[in-house]
Structure prediction request, 996 residues.
Amino acid sequence: MTTDLRHIRNFAIVAHIDHGKSTLADRLIQVCGGLSEREMKEQVLDSMDLERERGITIKAQTVRLTYQAQDGETYVLNMIDTPGHVDFSYEVSRSLKACEGSLLLVDASQGVEAQTLANVYLALEHDHEMVPVLNKVDLPAAEPDRIKEQIEEVIGLDASHALEISAKTGQGVSDVLEAIVQQLPPPKGDIEAPLKALLVDSWYDPYLGVVTLVRVMEGRLKAGMKIRMLGTRALHDVTQVGVFRPGKTKVNDLGPGEIGYVISGIKDIADAKVGDTITEEKRPCGKALEGFQPSVPVVFCGLFPSDTSQYEDLRDSLGKLALNDSSFIFEPEVSPALGFGFRCGFLGLLHLEIVQERLEREFGLDLITTAPSVVYHIYMKGGEMKELHNPTDMPEPTQIDHIEEPWIKATILVPDDFLGPILKLCEERRGEQIDLTYVGNRAMVVYRLPLNEVVFDFYDRLKSVTRGYASFDYQLEGYREGDLVKLTIMVNGEPVDALALVVHRSQAEVRGRALCARLKDLIPRQLFKVAVQAAIGGKVIARETVGAMRKDVTAKCYGGDATRKRKLLEKQKEGKKRMRQFGNVEIPQSAFLAALRMDED
Amino acid sequence: MSSLETHPEADAESPGFGLYIHWPFCQSKCPYCDFNSHVRDSIDQDRWRQALLRELAHFANRTAGRKLTSVFFGGGTPSLMAPETVGALLDVLPRYWQLDSNLEVTLEANPTSTEAGKFTAYRTAGVNRLSLGVQSFDDTALAFLGRRHSAAEARDAIALARRHFPRFSFDLIYARPEQSLASWEAELESALQEGTEHISLYQLTIEPNTVFHGDWRRGELQLPPEDRQAQLYEHTAAILKPAGLEGYEISNYARPGAESRHNLVYWRYGDYLGIGPGAHGRLSFDGARYALRQHRAPEAWLESVEDQGHATRAESALTLEERLTERLMMGLRLDEGISRAAVEAEQGRSLEALLDPERLTALCEAGYLELTHERLRALPAGRQRLDALLGFLLG
Prediction:
């Protein structure tokens, strides 16, 4: 039984991290009777451990609520919990497209942050009605009036009727439900038209195969149908449709405006791409929903097992992760310094960090991650364009006509005390100021920045110069030509592939010197002195020397020590398999690893 | 002297054949020591004497016809042995082996006054070289090292040793926490006043399963940094050389001719027999070379010997590769290095074929090794970094 359109409301919650989105979601579920108090686990919707721990939603999730409004009518409310982070902005935009409105949730003491802005703009792009909601008004530091003013100034949204709630105590939560019904528009759509549904998200379930989350726009979706994905052209048989309440609940069909799941025997998540349009094979809809674009990785890095015997485990684990994350890609890579591993592509740095953490935590792997690199466009003299994912693969400079790098538009909100250091940081990173405005005692700085300057150690610098008070968000803007060079690090004259970097010529010397100095501290003294150099092409731009060790000998070695001492030598020999030989120098992998963590100084 | 011409042990290239006897008991355990030593309320000297004699007889059978060049009583604290036990063991030797006319018989002794009282009795029993565990001439340092003697007792013991024994040596431990270069130099100069012909100078090492190891792990004890250790080591050689004491091994210095013949057997990779708890041996039979190890625990060793005549816990043939490793590891500790002829006779291949030529060259070029037609030796710069050098050369 499909629901009458007038009794459906689809909404998302737009918020900055930690502003209480998941708590509000849980509270709404509870008030509508989806779960009893006892069944409520904190933050029900963030099901992965990592998500719960970091307070980040990675995958979009949904829940169908039944709400009896003050007008006496019963409404179906579909809430989509979206990932809040910019790395997943494509997923966010798909989730927003499945709804007609959003709650704008703002912490009543912290106010608008960079992430709030980015997501508000996305929601406005999708013509969403917005209901401003101030959360945590029960806290002593709450200043609802000031924050309302800020919302009006920064976002340009009328906040005079903003709701004042506390998701934690439950205060004002029923007003939120009432506002959803009264202020957000119902969906539109013709139930008799050919099926047209948006694929909002998909994930792999070990028992059911790929489960897809869909929003039906027009027509009817039911079990037994043969459906086609308009983007990938793939055909599937629908075996089950249902909704989340929040547990999976089977229904007969899904009609216009409804959000639910579809199980259709898809084995590979790559066949269920977020943003694709689903239609019925024998009665297809005319046109696909607009804006379908497969998500493209923008940040690449190498992942290597620190114990070479874990290579197979790493491969299997990456495969399992990719089952649930179509935006994550990987291919085998061989590094002379680090051995066998994988070159992996991510949507952004947070995505990278999440994947790395899951591999280490869920799969028990010990990983070496090479310095993240963006995707460069290398225009060859012959006119051909090559995408460069790994600095090691940079062609000879003589063959290159020019190189383009990705630029972002970054928005930073910061207490004005820290404005100076922020501007200095952005200028150092080749930034171009677009906008600088004040809202009360907070400044909003908008800069255009090359992404490669951000992946280097921008977040950490930002955190340290503002003592954690800045919030940061960005959007990719496009590619621009840059004077970029490959910086090679050499140990005793041999290039170390894992440490190669692509940098702007103006930064090369500073980076080179920093890396050499760092390696000098990290490479243990050995029998021979070690020269560490940074070079562009054949030209050395920085150099450090690790002096030879001065003393290393067992004081006592007599007849009774021979066996033990020999075994020690034999064991050392085994241990050397984890070392990399550069000329006469052995460098432990741990030194590479630490050098790659440039952010720590 | 006539025997010198006939036996292989006598020729200049031969490392000799030594006997090591382990006495596993101490009055107390020193905090730096990881040797096989045990503290017991009472020891049945007769029973131990009988057992050591039995194990000696067992191995004498297996090595009959050889010529013994040295005997070493080590421990533990061999100066806790009854002189009669030492005498009984030395008395039977001519029955088992031909004895070198220069047979060196060393006994390790602690310089406490009670033990010094037995020195003449050891001499009478046949000991001709005393090795004294002095460790320091500084009373505070002696207390830190857990020693039971004072600096004054040490000097008295040295005087007695000088009077009663043709040869003696003593040990010192340096590179102690907080030890300055100047204070070590002063201590060393005062040690030289004793006029010894042989001295063993060990840098303090933190060994696993010792009291110091625990202190060190908890950060309560710190060794000097590597640079200062190197400086201490280099200064030591520079002070001893003008006094006529050559560093013939990493931690051992002697007037030419006064080297420890027994220890040279180890470093020249000769055959040695080890009896007593935890003793190790290297013995050649029929072209193969065996590594032997006796039961470590004193009581287990004793019962095993009484039961079956010996307490060998492990005996295994060494592979050629293991023999090469051991020979390099031991031989490169010596200033004289190793004989190319000896390696090549054992291995059947040239040194260049056995070792990585590029690494050999790199080590020679760095001034760490010297390779001639006759010998491969580690130069002082190489000896002082020998562990890393071996790791590189054999890695």
About this structure: Residues 1-12 of chain B have pLDDT under 50 and may be disordered. The CA atoms of residues 31 and 211 of chain B lie 5 Å apart. The longest strand of chain B covers residues 98-109. Chain B touches chain A through 48 residues (CB under 8 Å).
